[in-house]
Write a structure and sequence with these properties.
This is LysR family transcriptional regulator. With 289 residues, the chain is α/β, with parallel strands linked by helices. It has three domains: 84 residues, Winged helix-like DNA-binding domain superfamily/Winged helix DNA-binding domain (Arc Repressor Mutant, subunit A, Orthogonal Bundle), CATH 1.10.10.10; 97 residues, Periplasmic binding protein-like II (D-Maltodextrin-Binding Protein, domain 2, 3-Layer(aba) Sandwich), CATH 3.40.190.10; 97 residues, 3-Layer(aba) Sandwich (D-Maltodextrin-Binding Protein, domain 2), CATH 3.40.190. The chain contains twelve helices and twelve strands. Helix 1 packs across helix 2, helix 1 crosses helix 4 and helix 5 crosses helix 12.
């Protein structure tokens, strides 16, 4: 059953004649009559009683009319929604990100996207800090993920973002600059061994030394700074996280020497991104220049 057939049926119902409906629709009467006959064949019964004075609905036709109008309206609404989504006038953008990246860069990029496309709802969900495969992205139902470059699976399509600068957070008073070796001497408050920050530390220091220095291993990144404040050890965190906590009593934010950074990327399932995702990526790339 085609949309055009429903349009023809409803036009005949409204006009009361095949000729009037054909004129209103801008089609020939034979073409309209053939379409109605085909529709009746598909339904399996006559929908109109035909007479020299016009047509009227059969009982079956009257029963068919209401759902036909509803179906046609729903099809038009669906087409309008698809066109609006393609023009990014509405709909939603689904994003996954590591919680460590929620402030920088996710919050900045989402804010920039919202200022440009305020009618699009953005939903951000957390994903663990571990390798993220294309299948997992698909199962999550997200348009894209903002992840550490180390953890973007090889099966995903990736767009690099500016690297994330790291800083050290130490308990109590300390110098404003420090080294990784000095940080681990305080005992580490850190995320699990397969997380991006642990991978970074193991790449720059002896893995055994890092493991031995771990004082508290915690999955919840939001717990890291409170643990440092309460004397559980020192931590390596994103520089913007550290800057936001610089005024809190009981800790000192230190610049790492040499400078320390983690690669960040947008990861997507292979294939053509949604219109909203494509615009988000374009804005992110523009901000990187």
């Amino acid at each position: 059953m085609r949309t055009r057939q429903l349009e023809f049926f409803l036009a005949v119902t409204t006009c009361g004649t095949f000729s009037g409906a054909a004129t209103e629709l801008g089609v020939s009467q034979p073409a309209l009559s053939q379409a109605i006959a085909s529709l009746e064949g598909r339904v399996g019964t006559a929908l109109f009683v035909r007479s020299p004075h016009g047509v009227r609905l059969t009982k079956a036709g009257r029963e068919f009319e209401v759902p036909a109008r509803a179906a046609l309206a729903a099809l038009r609404d669906a087409a309008d929604a698809a066109r609006r989504a393609d023009r990014i006038e509405s709909g939603a953008l689904e994003i996954a990100c590591h919680s460590t990246l929620a402030i920088d860069p996710t919050a900045t990029l989402v804010g920039r996207f919202h200022r440009n496309f305020s009618d699009v709802t953005v939903r951000v969900r957390d994903v663990p800090e571990r390798d993220l495969t294309e299948r997992e992205l698909f199962d999550l139902g997200v348009d894209l993920a903002i992840v550490f470059g180390e953890l973007a699976g090889p099966s995903t399509t990736t767009v690099p973002l500016p690297p994330l600068e790291l800083a050290a957070v130490l308990p109590g008073p300390a110098d404003r600059t420090t080294t990784l070796e000095e940080v681990i001497a305080h005992g580490l408050v850190t995320t699990p061994v397969d997380s991006a920050s642990r991978i970074f530390l193991s790449r720059h220091l002896e893995s055994a030394a890092v493991d031995e220095a771990v004082a508290v291993e915690v999955e919840y990144t939001e717990a890291i700074l409170p643990l440092v404040i309460n004397g559980a050890g020192a931590a390596i965190v994103p520089a913007r996280h550290a800057a936001a906590a610089a005024s809190l009593p009981g800790l000192t934010v230190c610049e790492l020497v040499p400078r320390a950074e983690l690669d960040v990327a947008i990861a997507m399932p292979t294939g053509t991104p949604t219109a909203a995702a494509a615009e988000f990526i374009s804005l992110a790339e523009g901000a990187s220049r």
